[in-house]
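wait is this the right file?? whatever heres the structure
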């Protein structure tokens, strides 16, 4: 299967999706050893997002300035003149960049990469099926993550039909559930399990820190709890946002009332800070902040909820 100009060929009419990574041998995105497909595009803009390149759907050029040797090869090759020399360094004008990727192979130090490429259902299936023996032996499968996969709903549906119904893989959706319920309900028959992010139960605070309210998220969480699908709630534990006792008690109360019995805590980290710089964005949270993980575990357990902390199992 070939593609020209960075656009993947469609597989018998199936839509193409915008993918920014496919990570194999993943251990934290569902049971067993899995391949995780990351789709671009998200309706939220969480301040702590570890994958800021996932928020916009279109391809983006990432420029890691600390790797740049200022050799000038990118300046010479850029068709839109987005690079120029100034004061013995290369200056990058993002307003001119089309993320064509011409500068990527010209940079021998790997200072530039393009995040996001068009792929067909068939191309993704071809890549992940190479690991089917690992899935089978470990009880793993394929997880679709993001960004927010539901933002590419037609492609997500086609992909899950191929991977679950046709190939027989165990499939998992990693979602913040920021979508109309019918969009989420549509893909449930092609899923074995869901990883559901619950960040906060207060709509105003959720909007302040993520750029959007959460009434639809909480509604979808309630509907998922009523369904027969296996759901694991995951809580990103963010200092100053949701790790105070009152915040944690409110989240625990909602989960207990809704019927969820187990939670995975994902403690705050700053592994994505370098990506913000590479995208020309500012990371707004303190890099030295530490979440109140033991306190969070205690409050949730006191509500009768089983708690795991990611990375400690």
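ok assuming it is, sequence goes like this
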């Amino acid at each position: 299967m070939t593609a020209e100009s960075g656009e993947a060929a469609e597989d018998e009419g199936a839509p193409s999706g915008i993918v920014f990574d496919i990570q194999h041998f993943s251990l934290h995105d569902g049971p067993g050893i899995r391949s995780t497909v990351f789709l671009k595009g998200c309706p939220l803009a969480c301040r702590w997002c570890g994958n800021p390149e996932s928020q916009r759907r279109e391809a983006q050029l990432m420029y890691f300035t600390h790797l740049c040797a200022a050799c000038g090869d990118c300046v010479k090759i850029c068709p839109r003149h987005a690079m120029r020399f100034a004061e013995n360094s290369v200056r990058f004008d993002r307003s001119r960049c089309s993320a064509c990727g011409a500068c990527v192979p010209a940079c021998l130090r790997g200072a530039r990469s393009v995040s996001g490429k068009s792929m067909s259902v068939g191309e993704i299936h071809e890549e992940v099926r190479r690991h089917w023996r690992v899935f089978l032996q470990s009880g793993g499968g394929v997880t679709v993550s993001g960004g927010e996969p539901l933002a590419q709903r037609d492609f997500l549906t086609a992909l899950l039909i191929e991977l679950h119904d046709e190939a027989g893989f165990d499939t998992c959706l990693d979602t913040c559930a920021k979508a109309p319920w019918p969009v989420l309900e549509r893909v449930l028959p092609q899923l074995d399990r869901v990883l559901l992010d619950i960040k906060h139960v207060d709509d105003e605070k959720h909007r302040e820190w993520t750029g959007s309210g959460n009434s639809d998220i909480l509604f979808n969480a309630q509907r998922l709890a009523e369904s027969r699908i296996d759901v694991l709630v995951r809580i990103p534990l963010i200092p100053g946002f949701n790790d105070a006792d009152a915040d944690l008690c409110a989240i625990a109360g909602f989960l207990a009332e809704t019927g969820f019995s187990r939670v995975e805590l994902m403690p705050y980290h700053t592994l994505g800070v370098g990506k913000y710089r590479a995208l020309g964005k500012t990371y707004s949270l303190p890099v030295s902040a530490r979440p109140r993980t033991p306190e969070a575990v205690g409050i949730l357990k006191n509500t009768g909820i089983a708690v795991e902390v990611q990375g400690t199992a």
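The radius of gyration is 21 Å. so i think its the right one actually
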